[in-house]
Amino acid sequence: MREVPILAEAARPVFLRTVREAAPLRILELGTAIGYSALLALRESPEARIVTIERDADMAEAARSFLGRAGVLGRATVLVGEAEKLLPTLAGNFDLVFIDAAKSRYPDFWLGVQPLLAPRAVVVADNVLFRGLVEGEGSEEWPKHSYRTMVLQLREYLRLVRSAPGFRTEIFPEGDGMAVSRRDE
Questions:
Q1: Looking at the 3D structure of the chain, how many domains does it have?
Q2: Which of 26, 45, 128, 164 has CB atoms 3.0–4.6 Å from 177's, for a disulfide?
Q3: Of all residues in the chain, what percent carry a pLDDT higher than 70?
Q4: Domain interval for residue 83
Q5: CA-to-CA separations, 145 to 104, 120, 149, 150, 154, in angstroms, rounded
Q6: pTM for the full predicted model
Q7: Which domain CATH number covers 162?
Q8: How confident is the model at residue 144 (pLDDT cuts 50, 70, 90)?
Q9: CB-CB contact of 135 with 158 (8 Å)
Q10: Does 35 map to a domain?
């Protein structure tokens, strides 16, 4: 059985607090896995609906089953495919976006969700510090080859969100690092 990437226990309080504070009605998630974070978000925001994108069809089916057993599938739309291709097909005004997909594509995801954001949207990205290689004590060394693209793209993501006009970004070290970018419009 393969390991399923879900939101780390240490990062859950930050995620839940952010969802609670955002009080979203429309949520977009990139990287469904089994639907665990989607369920957490829907339970934290009982009026919300979520559109979640998963590239792996088997994983998406597992998520549908999981969300169905939890009684929230009626508030969830699980899309199968590459986020970059599906984002342009969505209608905007998402109050909360949760990015937890291919780490090397976070900068593209950031740019892709911009037209879909509500005026006071919050964008949350998980794993942005990736084992301390992106920022912090272990980040001074050049990352080993297998992580290089991911680490460099996560550094670019943090540069983008920190310099994005109209956004305030906080980085939380819990778990593997979580970036919370709040739109000020």
A1: 1
A2: 128
A3: 92
A4: 9-183
A5: 13, 38, 8, 10, 15
A6: 0.94
A7: 3.40.50.150
A8: low
A9: yes
A10: yes
